[in-house]
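User: New here, please read:
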Amino acid sequence: MIDLGLQGRRALVTGAAAGIGRAIAVWLARAGCDVALADKDASGLKATAEAIAETGRRSEPLTIDLREDGAPAQFVGQVVAALGGLDVAVNNVGMLSGRAPAPFLEQDDRYIHDVVAQNLLLTAACCRAEARAMVAAGTPGVILNVSSGETTRPALDLAAYGAAKAGVNHLTQTLAAELGPHGIRVNAIAPGTTLTTEVRAALSDEYVEALTASIPLQRMNEPDDLARLVVALASDLGRGVTGQLVLADNGAHLSRNRPNRPGAASAS
């Protein structure tokens, strides 16, 4: 049996009420972590906490809107107090901030600000709070940011989202260099279109079939795919990896015949 080095580690996951965030939180618990959960969806957090309880690990669900001023620092402070420290942080909050995909010429200043704030600025605020806690404790740690496969190609109708996630990639690289001397590894993962319940409901069967056919591995992402990658990067298996953007899109970025995206959202 391989020891992943995660037994008894203290982790947090933002956006943990459903989809990718829930899968990541549960997989970290399966690997031995106690996990703090942040989301504004209290009922979703309860379901995630119940799933973690089945693994035998502890969870700390905290209902909070991380977009509010000072909320990331408040959340991390609560995590440290509840779990006794912080070893692994996964920043998963993102998406379109309630906005629908739209051509760039139709994206007004408020649209762009909201999308950039929820993806880049919020990730930066969370990273800062998490890194400060790790440095103050004098212990090594891991920070993982959820980016997007949309940063590897033109993001039609998703210009603000793609640009914000590209900013997350650069932030990740810079923080890896700055925080490395403290023993903190920082990486980003970039999923392709992931079949969460929300995304699947928004896409037609025809589009899903066409997109799947265009992907080299002939399959689309499931939330568990990203969760498995997070466990690998957070564990001792990834101890030499920092400052990297790891694509987990089944090879979608290699496709030359990606179908046109319908009007419904399909961002990772």
About this structure: Strands lie at 10-14, 34-39, 59-63, 88-91, 141-146, 184-191, 245-248.
